[in-house]
Amino acid sequence: MKQISSADNPTFRLLRQLAESGRERRKRRRTLLDGAHLVQTYLERIGAPEMLVASRSGLDRPEIRRLAERAAAGSTLVLTDELFEAVAPVDTPSGVLALVPIPPEPAAVPARNSCVVLESVQDAGNVGSILRSAAAAGVPLALLTRGCAQAWSPKVLRAAMGAHFSLGILEHADPAALLAAYPGAVVATRADAPLRIFEADLRGPVAWLFGNEGAGLSPEVAALARLAVAIPMPGGAESLNVAAAAAICLYEQLRQRQVVNRS
């Protein structure tokens, strides 16, 4: 294991750039996974990371030492606790990071599959939660417009808890162009829609449109919807968090499909 104790080390500087800069992540097509659970998931689904980074105190924890033992020979880097804290993307450092490549983006929207379209969803936790729900519900593709939190930022990766490894993710997407020939339903939620989500036929491919936390969908993206549905809120709430709304929609679609498959 290579050990680093100087902030002038070029590898440390690279890690810090990737932790702090979306521009550097896009330029280098690399990102950082934070936490033992996420690194373990990557090892199981994808394979060894390019580099495993542990803090000195982190290596005292059995789960992190096991990850270091599974990493490719010579690919584990040990930082002093002070240097690790400087690159950690969270306030309470987990003790382990992994440097991994960002996979190529999908070229198009598959005609037979559902997808989620996020427009200017800015909160990293919301983006990660929606990606997590999509992957869990078997939706294979996410399209993110400009203005969304960067999909491959460490905070989004942490919130998604491994969903990135099951999804195709296209950033800076143009929904109008990508959905122009989409044969399935294009669905948006709207509080005043006359059709409740539980009454809509969602058994086929659906492109789900979810908008900004405060402003919702822009008029241009809202106009792409071929169907609007309402999520009932008998408790009197004015609206739902976008990640909660997305989970309800995706699992209602899954429920309907499973009913069909059992019949």
Biggest sheet details: 6 strands, parallel
| Element-level helix/strand string | EHHEHEHEHEEHEHEHEEHEH
CATH superfamily of the largest domain: SPOUT methyltransferase, trefoil knot domain
Overall shape: it is elongated
Question: Which residue ranges are poorly predicted, with pLDDT under 50 across at least 5 consecutive positions?
Answer: none
- The number of helical runs is 10
Q: What this model shows, in words?
A:
The structure is a single chain. This protein is α/β, with parallel strands linked by helices and 263 residues long. It has 2 domains: 2-101, 60s Ribosomal Protein L30, Chain: A (2-Layer Sandwich); 115-262, Alpha/beta knot, CATH 3.40.1280.10. 35% of the residues lie in helices and 18% in strands. The strands form 2 sheets. It has a 6-stranded parallel sheet with strand order 8-7-6-10-9-11, with helices on one face. It has a 5-stranded mixed sheet with strand order 1-4-3-5-2, with helices on both faces. Helix 7 links the parallel strand 7 and strand 8 (168-170). The radius of gyration is 20 Å and the shape is elongated. The model has no long low-confidence stretch (mean pLDDT 94).
Helices and strands, with pairings:
Blueprint: E1 2-4, H1 10-20, H2 22-28, E2 30-34, H3 36-45, E3 51-55, H4 62-70, E4 76-79, H5 81-87, E5 96-101, E6 115-118, H6 124-136, E7 141-144, H7 154-160, E8 168-170, H8 175-178, E9 185-189, E10 206-210, H9 219-222, E11 227-229, H10 242-262
Parallel strand pairs: 1-4, 3-4, 6-7, 6-10, 7-8, 9-10, 9-11
Antiparallel strand pairs: 2-5, 3-5
